[in-house]
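Hi V.,

Quick status before I head out on leave. The structure for the redesign project is tokenized and pasted below; the design run finished overnight.
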């Protein structure tokens, strides 16, 4: 799939590893110990829920596995993210909070994975699967869409313009979530751009 190990951008690996590390710290310290600064920005007060942090952890690891040649692990991590999205969406639909809280954090009704976050993970998993299949144009297209969409969602949530504009489907994404999506999609763009055939 990749020309050689030197063709993998060190910056892409750094972005993916940073996403994994931040998600791990958000789970362990942010939700585990209760350090709010890792999971909630003061301007929005919307938290990055544990399911979202776990999704970033698995997606970032999936990208690292894909670029290192561990295809089975990458596919398994993609499946884990999709299962997490399905469980979370089902929990929201029927009002079951247990899968959203991931059994260790007591969340309020408003503190659930936002639909726009679920959509972002679906895009990221699709891009990872296209990367594994060698369809780099699809990866780059999805990456560009994600990189350009993440700051827009962040700005709309931080400024409160979502309610004014009637864009409720974009509501609920934390600032941290938007930043991590921007990092992840940037890493996908870099991997695809550096591995296109000459």
């Amino acid at each position: 799939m990749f020309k050689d190990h030197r063709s993998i951008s060190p910056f892409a690996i750094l972005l993916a590893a940073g996403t994994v590390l931040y998600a791990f710290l958000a789970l362990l310290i942010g939700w585990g110990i209760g350090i709010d600064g890792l999971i909630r920005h003061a301007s929005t007060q919307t938290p990055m829920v544990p399911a979202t942090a776990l999704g970033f952890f698995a997606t970032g690891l999936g990208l690292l596995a894909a670029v290192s040649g561990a295809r089975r692990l990458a596919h398994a991590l993609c499946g884990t993210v999709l299962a997490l999205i399905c469980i979370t969406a089902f929990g929201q639909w029927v009002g079951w909070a247990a899968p959203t809280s991931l059994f260790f954090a007591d969340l309020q009704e408003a503190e659930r994975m936002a639909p726009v976050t679920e959509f972002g993970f679906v895009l990221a998993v699709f891009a990872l699967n296209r990367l594994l299949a060698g369809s780099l144009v699809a990866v780059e297209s999805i990456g560009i869409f994600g990189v350009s969409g993440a700051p827009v969602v962040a700005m709309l949530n931080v400024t409160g313009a979502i309610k004014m504009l009637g864009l409720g489907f974009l509501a609920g994404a934390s600032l941290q979530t938007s930043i991590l999506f921007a990092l992840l999609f940037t890493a996908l763009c870099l991997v695809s751009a550096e591995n296109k055939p000459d």
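Above is the designed sequence. DSSP finds eight helices and no strands in the chain.

G. will cover questions while I'm gone.

Best,
W.
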